[in-house]
Each structure stands twice: as structure tokens, then as C-alpha cells.
Amino acid sequence: MIEIQNVSMVFKQKGFSGGEGFKAVDDISITIPEGCIYGFLGSNGAGKSTLMRMLCGVYRTEQGSIKIDGREVYDDPQAKGDIFFVNDETVQFTTFTLDGLRKYYKSYYTTFSDETFDRLTKKLGLPTDKRLAEFSKGMKRQSIVIIGLSCMTKYIMLDEAFDGLDPAMRKVIKNMIVDEMLDRQATLIVSSHNVAEINELCDRAMLIHKGKLVFSGEIDEIQGGFRKIQLARSGAPVARKELEDLGLEIMQYTSQGSVIQAVVRGTEEDIMRKLSAIKTDITELIPLTLEEIFIYELEARGYGNNELK
Amino acid sequence: MATMSLNKINRTALAEVRTHKKILMIMNIMLAAATLLLWMVDNEGLMVLGMFLFCVGGAIGIIASVNVFREMTNSQLCDVKLSLPMSNLERYFSRLLTLAYIHIFPMMGYGFLGLAGMYISNGFSEGFLDNIRIPDVVAIYMIALGITLFIDSVTVFCTTCCGALAESVYFSIIAMGCISVAPGVMYYQIANAFGGMSDVPEFIKYWTFSAVLAAEDANSPSDMILPQIISILISCALFAAAYLTFKRRDASSVGDPIAVKLFYEIIMVLGVFTVYSAFICSSAMKVGVILTAIIYLVINIIVIRAKINPKRIAFWLLKLAATSAVFMAIVFAGFLTDGFGIYDYMPIRSMANNDIRIYTYVLDDVRGTVDYEVQTDFGELSDEQMREVIKICRKYGYTAKTADRFFGLVSGDAYGRVRDGDTDSSSFNMVKVESCKQYKRMEDGSEYTLERTTLDQHILMSNEDVEQLFAELKELGIPVNISYTDYNDYDNYDDGVYEEEVPMSEEPAPAY
Asked: SS3 of B493, please?
């Protein structure tokens, strides 16, 4: 289990140009249980990658604590031995052959499984004696993921690992990861801008914006906590103020004639109970996709200036 | 546990070595060739080429060190390496061992083979290295090892303090230059200008790169070995200091040109001090100031990586002014204390065991005077007599603390040492003959030039003072043989009169 408690990270201004630092992660607390696939969602520069690097001990945790199975991860080889981190680049591996990478990581991870490595390389038909520089982007990504899976760590962290891959390649890599992770009850943490991908792959997720945690939990629970309502009333349409007076938390509101649409935070039962206090001609509640929740949450925080829709 | 950790360090170091195969191959090919060339003792040209290749091998230490510690300057590699299951201490030692495998061990191994082969083949073929002995070979080996470790330790230290590749390279080069040059030059300038002594302690004289330049002047191999041992220990201390910054570095400072700002300030101060030291007490001091300002601004502009405005430039110039003020304060302290007490140390006690020659040195515009040469051997003096000589010599030194004299000395005015109102001022030199060099003509017609090298101290005093000093020395029972040269015999004499240039008169010296 990974426990993140009140974690903050401030980047100091680079160089000697002065100025204040930048708070990339701001007091985040989440728990990632074992055996799940956890998605880190967020806009560009939200702090997903920073948090993921803190989880891997790449950044020192200056405020708060990050514990992997009860051990502070930074500078702890035992805790790090349970993690494999795949960042969003592959350029650092281009001088290696796949076999060279195997030898390299085998020196660091005593748990490295040659059997898994051989099986996965055969399955994907990757040459082990060619330099990665000669590989396509998808093949490079496959190679790193194979290495990651072969290290047999308890946790694998993929930072925007599927970016830039075509849909077919994404599917191949995702299936390979999910199959392997499920087989050995390992935990996968994935960060992405692609909400649909997280929705499809993960059973838990969190949304981070400007370093602050917006929400976290099981995806079903998250989706159950938001509804889009459509209300039609002859005469005057239902005003935003009216809805707010009912105790509804409105994230987004539009009206067209006598029909209004609003995105509301809350469970279906709770929203229906509150709406029963006003008389409408039509009342309709529509569940939101994770992508819609992502957009509305960020929009509610002023991100994208309504251009995301 | 410790064994496991060492195994891990070695295992991961070997894994890292595989990622630096090219450097390892280049090192091996080049050093193998250099080793073979060193064995060609009957061909000086090939041997010099071999030594040059060893020097290049040493310089590759910069590339090797920067590459081994590339995670300090490359964010992608930093992500990978810092997430691997190692503690900072293990990772650091793993990197050092990697550096040893690809650079230090090849330099040591091939260096040993090259020098051993050179020594053995010289014995067989009677090559041009006619007098080479085992201590000489050991001294050369120690110099090579000392410089290799110096290059690597400085580069590793600089790389752990920098977050960008460019800075880690050029700051390493600047640091190496400053560390090699600054102590010797600063000591020399202060000692020479205010202490009247042009000697530089052997440790500073023969350390780091200066060992290569000064090796020829060394009296004996042991002169070189001890400074090199100290130099190696300093390199080890630098490796240890590098760990202190290494363990504090995480990925957040990668990409930042300078990760440790204190390091930057120290290097800049050291750089300014080095350039000033090279120019101070010479007429080119103004050139030094301008050059320093240009270099200082250029480095700041490169490092800042941000918009430059007049306010920022003014700030840099203020910092430079403050650094210059500190430098001048140190120099002034040297002036007030007669070269931080070096003057009081004169003459060097170790001279007592050597042939000592005292002679006067007449400045170029002092014509019509007589140059006295006094030759004696202080080697026979007891410690008590030597102390008495020191006391007498110090009495005649001119150490007035006036602003005119200070600025005169700083701006390279040698007459700053001369007492105001003196007309016939002479410098009084005390010379320790370090080695006697001669011209030698071999049977095959080839010629070798051997020159005499000396360590000397000089104070300026009037001719009257010189006469009194000689009289006192004679009273002390020191056998002083005096000869003199009448410069009126030399019509076109312009430059300073040197012993080698002016034939001595056969006339008897005046009695004192």
C-alpha cells in the first residue's frame, strides 16, 4: 500500500533570475491500495508527474510523507526495490539493445525474471539484439514496459507512457500490462491526460489541478458523485440561484429558453430529493463520464475558459 | 550487510561501465598505444608522443566523469537512475567505481606498464634517458596518478554542483585552472612583493598541473612524491565533499545551470583572485582588471539563462567590485604583515644545508656603481649562527608601510622596495642553489643544456647598507669572499645586470 500524506513540493526558481518558487504539489493526501490500477488525472502542469516522481524517490519529499508498505521511499533501496518507474521519454535508452537493457536492470533488480522477459519479447516479436535507436516509438515503449514487467516489482508507475502511440499500439501495451499485473496482483499507477484511457484501464483515480487534489477514489464512486440535470419549466426557467438555494453544488449552468442544464455534484438520490422541493415540467438526471467530470471540475476552477467543451 | 552492499555497488558499477563502453574502448586503445610508445626509449619523438597520449588520457577524465554522473545534468537519466533501488551512498560509490573502471584504473594500469617498460628498455638500449632511476619513475607515476585523480575529483565535484552539462564541463575546467594556478601565483606575488622571497613552497609548486610544468626544476624525485601524495589526499577529500552535495541533490535541481549557489560564488571568487594574482605587482594590472571584468560578465551572462537588464549587470559589477575589494584587502594584509610573515622567515632555514651565495643586484638605472658579489657557504654554520645571519639580514630590510609604497608594489614598481631618498639602491639577494646546470657536449656531438636553478630571496637596500651588512657578517666570522664589477666598463648596458651576463673583475674587492 502506498500512503501519501500531506505532501507538498515547491520548485525553486531555476538559475539566478530570482522570483518565487512554484508549488507543484500542494498538501495532497491519498492512499493507493495494493492490487489496483490507479489513474492520476490532471491538466498540463497539474503536478501528476511531480507526484509520481516523488512516489519513486526521484524528488525528495520536503513536506509530508510518502510511504510504500510503511517505508519512506526517498533514499530507501528496499522501498525503491518494489517500484519500477517508466517516464514519458525513451531517449535515455536508445543506446541500449533490449538484451543490454535486460542486463542493466538485472544488475539493479535482483527480482528480475528472465522467463517473463523472454516470454514477453517473444510474444511481441521484438528483436533483442538491435539498438533501441532503431526501434519505432511504439517498440521502444513496449521494450521499456517489458523491462518494467520483468523486474517483477510490486508497483509499476507509468508516467504518460501511452502518449504519442497509435490506438492499436496503446491497446497492445495496455493489454500486456493488465494481463501481467493481474496475474501477480501487482499495483499499476498510470498518469495521463487521456481521461477515456484512465476510465477504461483504472479502477481508481484521482484528479489533481494546480497541485491540489480535486478528488480521489474508485471510478464508479467518482462517477456516482456527479450528475447532469435537465430541467424544463413553463414560464420562467429554473434559475441558478434557485438551485443553489436548494443546497445543490452547481459546477456548470446553462439555460436555453425554458430549459436549463446544470452539472451538479452529488448522488442521484440526494439530487432528486433536493429537486423535489421545486416544481418542474421535466426533470432528467444524466450520469457523467469521467471525461465530462474532468472537464467540468477543471472548468469550475477556471481552467480552459469554457473552451474545453 | 556491508558485503552485500559492496557486491551491489560493484555489480551496478559494472552495469554502468557497459553504458560507457565507448569511453572505455577509446581509453584502452589510446593508452595501449601510449604505453608502447613509452617503451621506445631510443626515439625521443615517439616517447613524447606517448606522454602526450597519456596526457590526453588524463584529460578524458573530464568527459568520463561528466558522463558517469550524467544524472546530475540530464533529467531523463535522473528519472531512471534515482528511481533505481539504491541509496544515495551506494549510488555515489557505484558511480565512483564506474569512473575508476573506465578512467582511473586504465590510467594506473597502463601508466605502470608504460613506465616500467620504459625503465627496463632504457636499461637495455641505453636510450637518451641516461640517468633515469626507479625513484624518478615512481615520481612520474605519482604525478600521473595525482593529476588523474585531480581531474576526476574536480570534475565530479563540479558536476555534483551543476545541473547543466555545459556548466559542469566549463566550471570543471575553470576550477582546475584556478586550483592549479591560484595558490602558487598568489603566494608568489605576495611573497615576492612583500616578503622579498621569490621561492614557492614545494607543496604548491609541485601540486596538480604545476607538477608537470615544474617537474624539471625538482631537486630530487622525493620533492615531487610528497606533494603528489598530498594532492591525492586532497582529491580524495574532494570526492568526499562531492558526496555531500550528491546526496542532497534530487531531480528538482537537474537542468538548473548551478545547483549549489555557494559553489558558484566560490568559483567566481577563485577565478577573479586567480586572474588578479596573475597581473598584480606588474605594470599590466589594468589589463588584468579589464580582462577579469569581461570574463566575469560573460560567465554571469551564460549562467543566468534569463533576461538581462542594466540592473542585473550593475549588480554583477557591484559583486565584482566587492570581490576585488576583498582581494585588495588580502593583498594589503600581505603588505602590512610583510607577506604574511614570510619576510620574517627569511632566509630559509633549509639554505643552511646548501651552498648559499649572497650577491648584490644592481638596478638598471644605477650606473657607475659597483656590484659586489659575496660568496660563502652557510652549510658549515651552526643553527645559532644561522639564526644570527637571519637576524642581521632582516635588520636591513626596508618594510615601511606607506600607501605610496603599497600602490607602487601593486602596480609593478620594483622601486617600491627602495627607501625614499636612496640614491645608490641595490637589491640584496640570498640565493639557494637548487641544482647546478651546465652545458654538456657529448662525444657524438650532441649538446645538452643544464641550467642552474635557484631559490632566492631579495631585499632592496642602499649600497651603504650592503657594506654594513657585509661587515657584520665578517664580524660574525662568516667567510665572505667578495668580488665586484665596475659597471663603468659597460657603455651600452641597459638591462639589469645578471651574474651570468657580466664577467667578474679580477681586481680585489674593497675591504670591509
From this structure: coil
